[in-house]
Amino acid sequence: MMRFSPGDIKKSLSHHGLISRGFLNFDAGDAAPVAVSGEPAKSLMLVGQAGAPNWPTFQAWLSTRHPKPDNPLDCWSKDVIGGVAASLQARAVYPSDKPWLPFQQWAVRAEGLKPSPLGILIHPEYGLWHAYRGALLFDQPFDHAETPEPNHPCENCLEKPCLATCPVGAFQNGGFDGAACVRHVIGECGVACRNDGCLARNACPVGVTYRYPAGVQAFHMAAFLANNRQK
Length: 231
Hints:
single chain; alpha+beta; two-stranded antiparallel ribbon
């Protein structure tokens, strides 16, 4: 029996603009990460966002950091989710840490999602405007943790505007031409992508009410460019 219900955990996260992104119980054959006890975790709750309600909290946190940290959103996520984990006697893990943990596999299992043609997992309500910031690992299973039925909105999208909108055709044949994307975004013709976010992602008709504001998209684009220029 868990000491905290999923409802208790969701309430703790909501103060930071974060939400539960699904939960699951590990099976006996799963390679589960260790929980607080040092034994393989029995359950997991994904933590993330839908839209950008976390942005004001993140910006307020960032304004108090001098000097500004590298990868500030990852640092904020660890600060917030780590604090929630400590209060719930859970262990927090993050998609930004090595060795990489299978967050996308967990998301497919916990929320029944599938990748969009852009490679981003698409949610039937949130579209492409969501993210996973971490996960909470527990030593006890949840009472109810069933895998939802897959719901893939791309299957009913005939026009696929996401694939037709990229100015350099970076999303073709099931792959992503990152070098072509970077060259375009940093060039004279990439102003719209730099300031307002990926044109292909913005073309998706699903979950438009959750679309990140332009300033949030510009932040993520700048981080994308910084990471890919280093490669």
